[in-house]
Give the backbone structure.
Amino acid sequence: MKIIQSFWTKPTFKNNKINSTDRNKGGWLTKKHNYMSWALSCLQLRKFYEKVELVTDEKGYDILINKLKLPYTNVTVVLDELNHYHPDLWAVGKLHAYKIQTEPFIHIDSDIYIYKPFPSSLETSSLIVQNFEKGFFFYDKVFNELKENFDYVPQALFDSIEKNNKIISVNAGLFGGNDIEFFKEYTHCAFEFIDRNISHLEKIDIGMFNTVYEQFLFNALAEKSNKTVNPFISDINPSFDGIANFTQVPNTVSFIHTVGFYKGLPTINEILEHRLLNDFPEYYYEIINLLRTKQL
C-alpha cells in the first residue's frame, strides 16, 4: 500500500491567525517549525515505505521539492484547482488527494511521525482511520451552527445522530484504505456539501466545518453503506492525551501526531526542532539556511 501526503498551500500562507482552527504556518508557531514538520514527517515515512507520494500545488512543489528536496517518490501538482475556495477550508486539499487515488492508500498528515511500519492488518483494511471520535463536545456546537445557517446538510449526518444518539466521527490524521469506490462517493458528497453552502460560510466557524465534511461525513456514509472502518488507535479522549509524547520515541512510542493545539505549544515546537536536528541534521541546517537567506 502506498503512502500519500497533501499540501494545499493557500491555508498555510493566510496572513493572520484569527481563529484557533486556522492553518497559517500549518498551525505551528512559526513557518520554520512548519517546514521542519514536513521534513520529519516525510523522512520518517520514507524509512519504512518505498512509495511515499505528494499531492500539492505549484507553490508546494517549489517549497517541498525544489527547495527542501524531500524524497517523495512521485509528485502530483493539481491543487491550484482549489484556489477559489476559502483558505479556512484547509481539508479540501486532502479531499482532492483522496478523490484522485486509483489504488489503495494511506494519507498521512504532515504533523505525524512514525517510527515503525503500520501493521499489515491495517494496510489490508477497506477503510482506515486514525481513531474514532465519539461524543466529542465540539461537534455538537458546529453541527448546530450548520443546521441554522446552511441550505443543505446531508441526510446521512442526521441519520447517524439518530442511530447513535450522539455524533460519532473519526480522526483523519491517518486515513485511507482499499475501498477506492467508497472514497469516490465520499469525496463527491463532501464537495457537494461545501459547494452548496459557499454563500453561507461567513456565518459559521469555517475551520470547525472541516471536521464535519471530512470526518463526520465519512463515518456517517460508512455507516449508511454498512462499511467496516478500522481504527489505528482503539481509544482516545478529546484531549488526545499521549499522542504527542515525543519523549518516549522511539523505544516505547512509534506514532506521534501533534494534533491541533499541540502545535501551539512551545515545548512541542522545540522538541520537533531537536528531533529533526538529531535525526536528519542535513535537512535541519538546509531549512535554517533557506530561512536565513529568505528563500523560504
User: Anything to note?
Assistant: Residues 240 and 259 are 8 Å apart (CA to CA). The two ends are 33 Å apart (CA to CA). The mean pLDDT is 94. The first strand starts at residue 2 and ends at 7.
